[in-house]
Amino acid sequence: SSRVMEIQSQMSERAVELLGLPEDRPCLLLDVGCGSGLSGDYISDEGHYWIGMDISPAMLDVAVEREVEGDLLLADVGHGIPFRPGMFDGCISISAVQWLCNADKKSHSPPKRLYRFFSTLYTALAQGSRAVLQLYPENSEQLELITAQAMRAGFTGGMVVDYPNSAKAKKFFLCLFVGASGTLPKGLGTECADGEEIHQAKFTNERTRFRNAKGKSVKKSRDWILEKKERRRRQGKEVRADTKYTGRKRHPRF
Q1: To 10 degrees, what angle do helices 140-152 and 110-124 make?
Q2: Using a CB cutoff of 8 Å and minimum separation of 24, what contacts does 21-29 make?
Q3: For 108-140, what is each residue's pLDDT tens digit?
Q4: Which residues form the Methyltransferase type domain (predicted)?
């Protein structure tokens, strides 16, 4: 639904923000549990490149139909991250890591699968980079299990909780550092607790100001469309030629 897509987009935006990526160059990111590529769309809009992993062939088929700009890999992250050391400048994951806590087969051991995931992810990330994993833990024990295996694999960092006093807007982001430990970002909505609707509106407005402050083109504008088409040309994809009608809004029919 449109509401789910909006929430997914907001969480992706927040995850990329927590990565603290440099603004002067494009980065290569890993999207764990990429699904239909909604998170990847935001990564592409920010001018970065990405590779997505997902265990669901059906979701990846949707991503292919949507013609996402990232590369896609069908894989179970519980078996590890199959990329060369230091390949990625960062990693995000939206609502995926908690599934590694489930034992879907007799051979599945959640602690072992989590450690395999985190240890190979640590290797695949460049020194000084970050991984930001948004998750929905069922309970405190599950949260502790995930965090413990991440620290055992060599990561430093911790949990960033946005809007901790709101039942609906509360979000957990496991922010992990590779190499030297950085300063853990502060969660949104931690200074005041006026109400969840105000929090959500505040979150949206702050992110809009942040995006405009960076000088990014307004989404769906002519400049935004031209930039996206140029990125696709650099990737060797077929793109329609630019014309005076590119990005022009059509009048509604009566």
Answers
A1: 40
A2: 21/48, 21/89, 21/90, 23/214, 27/89, 27/90, 28/87, 28/88, 28/89, 29/88, 29/89, 29/90, 29/91, 29/92
A3: 799 999 999 999 999 999 999 999 999 998 888
A4: 30-108
Q: For 194-230, what is each residue's pLDDT tens digit?
A: 444 433 333 333 444 444 445 566 777 778 788 888 8
Confirm if 192 and 172 have CB atoms less than 8 A apart: no
Task: Tell me the C-alpha distance between 42 and 13, whole Å.
Answer: 7
In sequence order, the 6+-apart residues with CB closer than 8 A to the CB of 97 are: 32, 33, 117, 133, 135, 146, 174
> What does the mean pLDDT of the chain come to?
84
Instruction: Locate 126 and state its tokens.
Output: 């460049």
- What does pTM read for this prediction? 0.75
Torsion angles phi and psi, residue 102, rounded to 5: -95, 140
Q: How many CA atoms lie within 13 A of 176 on its CB side?
A: 28
Nearest to 214 by CA among 32, 16, 63, 5: 16
pLDDT at 85 over 90: yes
The residues that bridge with 88 in the sheet, in sequence order, are 125
62 and 95 Cβ atoms separated by less than 8 Å:
no
- β partners of residue 130: 90, 177
By mean pLDDT, which of 42-56, 70-84, 144-158, 211-225 is the weakest? 211-225
Helices of type H across the chain: 2-19, 38-45, 57-65, 110-124, 140-152, 196-213, 222-234
Measure the CA–CA gap between 195 and 10, rounded to whole angstroms. 19
List the domain boundaries for the chain.
1-203, 217-253
Task: Classify domain 1-203 by CATH number.
Answer: 3.40.50.150
